[in-house]
Amino acid sequence: MATKQLRQRADVPEEQKWRLADIFPDTAAFNKACADLIAQGEAIAQHRNDLLDDAGVLYDTLTAYFQARTLADQVFNYGEHLYNSDMTAAAGQKAVAQADQTVTTFATATAFVEATLPQVTDAQLAALTQAEPQLKQYAFIFAQAQKRQPHILGAGEETLLSALGQTFTAPESIYNKLNDADIAFGTMKDAHGNEIPLSKEKLYQLYQSPDRAVRKTAAEKFSQGYARSQYTFAEALQQHVHTQNTLAHLRHYDSARAMDLSAQFIPEAVFTNLVDTVHEFLPSAHKYYALRKRVLGLDPLYSYDLSVPLVGEAPLKPTFEQAKAWALKALAVLGDDYLAHLQEEFGNRWIDRAENAGKLSGGYESDVFGVHPYVLLNWSNTYRAASTLAHESGHAMQSVYADANQPYWYSQYSMFIAEIASTCNESLLNHYMRATHQDDDRIKAYLLTESVEDLLNTIFNQTKYAEFEHFMYTSDAAGESLTPEKLNDKTAALDAAYTGDAVTPNPWPNVSWARIPHYYMNYYLYQYATSKAVANTLAQRILADPADQVPQYKAFLSAGASDFPLAIVKKAGIDMTKPDYIRETLTVFDRQVDELADLLQK
Fold this sequence. Notes:
This protein is mainly α. It has three domains: 12-152, Oligopeptidase f, N-terminal domain (Butyryl-CoA Dehydrogenase, subunit A, domain 3), CATH 1.20.140.70; 230-312 and 450-524, Orthogonal Bundle (Neurolysin, domain 3); 317-439, Collagenase (Catalytic Domain) (3-Layer(aba) Sandwich). The protein has 24 helices and five strands. The strands form two sheets. A three-stranded mixed β-sheet has the order 3-5-4, covered by helices on one side. Strand 1 and strand 2 form a beta hairpin. Helix 17 (383-405) packs across helix 18 (420-436), helix 19 (441-477) runs antiparallel to helix 20 and helix 21 packs antiparallel against helix 22. The protein is globular and about 75 Å long.
């Protein structure tokens, strides 16, 4: 648990940093772009009251608006990426503040554009398009807006709701302050007897400790930290859920779930199919937990034992160069053009990979239309880091294909499908690595464990969280209070249903609901599970029949946001209104658990 001494940003070699000069060559260009964006917003705002009066005005305003939005994305990404490179540096702090202020000013000035579009009737749109045929290039923009018409309130009511925006987000703000600033977990002794502060960042490391007493102490202290404030956490959740239920009622939706899924035009059957199908395969999850219990020789097995490696120390410790080579070989099945784009990413400093003091933790990809995607990593020589490289590169490649085939306004793909290309890459990488190490049972078992755990955490666990979220909304809608006791009991019941008899409940209240920030993101969690199921199914089909499947997959990558999300996924050959794709993936999961059991037996 020794503290790792990180390099300063200035000491990181240039080839390990992303090249932000591709967006703006220097600060002067960035400053000019900020000024230009504000001026463009002011010019667009001149048509606040006459946007629908004339077809030419509407076309010119929409064209100017999306051109300005392209610039806004460049301004935002430049400031954000410079700041995330080193959050202690004055230059980054200044740039992100300037970018945020500029983009907010622009957004405020031009908010009327997208607020006005749902007011356009079919008759109006037909007349406007006849008068200005170039408006047809925005046809899907209008189609989406018209689907929202029944849920748009009067101008005065919309103004009132807009003014209450900060009030609506207050529960999440309170949660974040409580979870990030106020909560404390105390200290504990590590496996070497050293007294260390316990934090959320250290918890995963401690859960992997071979010393069970360390794992138990970490779990209990972590739970106690949340339990001390469980009434405040519960009240914040109650208010958030009640606010969303109220908004759904005001906007004439049947439920908050209907409202939140309709934001991306997703039918509720996608949610219910997921939950129902995962329940069919719970015996497969139970089989894995029983295997873990048997292999570790732990009876009883507790939740804090579920991260202990099954094969000991990780046998793969790749360098960044090795990980790039793995990715190129694993993803070769997607064709020469895909590999060429990957090589462009790897060779032209799209990636900021080195850890340094002050850098944002974790990893992400962000597209800059008209430039190229950017990827942030914090590289470590682990298989998981190599999988993260493949994952974020999947996002980048979807951005590359969408940007090349769509105009800006159709290029930014929906969050509902955003995790498909990334996790498809993870599955292809894992399959390639297992095939490469076919004769090494220990490495195969390690890689198979990674795949099984990934499916377990992304499909089973996220579905469990989605069930819990739905329970909260339906309870509040029925007039029931979300007390800590009620939330604890439901969490414990769901945990028992998903883990089966192999895992014994911890001997303290189950307050794990309090640690999940995604409960404030309005029916977001289920999307992790559906995306992973689609991605894994696509990977299996691509490997089985690349000649047929790869062209469909690239049609999906290229579609961006040019159609409704389910229609875009259907381009890849998957109908998400049916549960077949979930069954395909969970059948693979069940088979992998059996294969892992055989390997561990050896």
